[in-house]
Amino acid sequence: MYEVSNSIARWASKSPERAAVIDEHATLSYVVLNERANHWVGALHAAGFTSGAGVIVLLPNRVEFIEVLVAMFRADVVPFFMNTNIAYYKAEDILNLVAATHAGLLITTRVFADKMAFGEDEVPFQVWCVDDLDLSGQPIGEISSPRHGTDIVLFTSGTTGSPKGIVMPKSAFDLGLQPNGHIMKPKLHLLVKPLASRGSMTTTCNILQEGNTVVLSRQSKPDAWLNLMERHDISFVKLGPSELMRWLDHLERIRSEFPPSVNHIMSNGEPLTNALKSRIKKLLPHMRVTDLYGTSEVGAITMIDDNEWAAKDGSCGRPIFFVSVKLVDEQNQELPAGEIGEIWVKTRYRMREYYQDPAATSVTCEGDYVKTGDLGFLDEQGYLYLRGRKHDVIKWGGFRIFPAEVEDVLREVSGIEDAVVIGNHRPERMQEPVAFIRLREQEPMTTESEAKKKREILAYCERRLARYQVPAEVWFVKEIPLNAAGKADRRELAQRTVTLQQKDGH
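-> structure tokens emitted (506 positions)
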């Protein structure tokens, strides 16, 4: 983040009133962002948090997050960023993290601090609430040369268990962008996903290096995003498929037009489904839409624009610049085009390691490559197609069922908005696929209409899939539960399966 920090200082000098960060309650120019970041450095140093010290950051999307982000580099401390979308954090989790990291400071909000309800005698660290902290009285801190605190630790959403700490060199967020030598009107970029996620943090650094404006919403609601778009001339929106679906639902519900200022949408997280792509093409025929696939461990991997969707149906695109992808079988042998295997990625922007977990690091890292845990295949032109997570593969007898293949077919059925397929363990130690369906129309269904829709879905699957791939059960849900990364929470659905089967007497 050395270049990001320098870019902010450069824009503060060249165009001081240029907007750097905006949320619902504040607008920071580049000169104010630069000054406030330096006051944060002064506050950190005055409190004894100097080069190499550990600081935990638990902040939602708001202007203070970016102030703190810049200050973390300038003070040369080691920040541990936690995702506020993870609802199950408790005081015990913070205390355990402090013990593991020896961090002496937690920077958060009054809401989160009150929620944690730390007892006075059990807090071996300081808690700073950005709502209460007055930086105006703090001295300008001396900016450190990057030495000890050259890493950032990001905690993942925990899709396969407890959140893992991913150790990233700060240099991984400097994308080598050339400074913009022209003072043009800044472009406003709305970021919806949590800034504590790698994708959002990288995009933030990219925007600030170019002298553009980061727009943040403190609320995870489509009407809040729409209000920001109406108040500001936003041209670019970055969000996940679930947020995009909710946004389109909201616009249709209130019978509103899409904001005319927006000309580019980027989706990251789970790849866009074919059903969602069709809906986008129908509702936003002239909008540029980019689908980006990546992971916290390696960053962006592939990208595909809407003008390629028709020719490469179902693909998440080709590897981006500086990224190499190969598909590997269970014997670690590289596979030819068309064969499904685990996706391995080589990139200069990879993680260093999992925090304090050498065993997980050695399993995930293989030489220059990082194993993603995702399955897929490459076609002859180098386009990547995903087939789900390695640990989500359903084993039925001697067959392997890739949930993504079944989900793609389910989404072809009229009226289905989204579908998730998981494996259900049976007493005979065999798995069977079961499907959770979100219908486009959320009107209450009678027992008869629900049974009729299930028969329609299963009949369609029987025509399009092998017998062992057809879901053994179909359940309708109002919403697909999501984890902190905005991906389908398959663990939650597995728990629901047990409850639903007990209710049905299975």
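The chain is about 30% helix and 25% strand.
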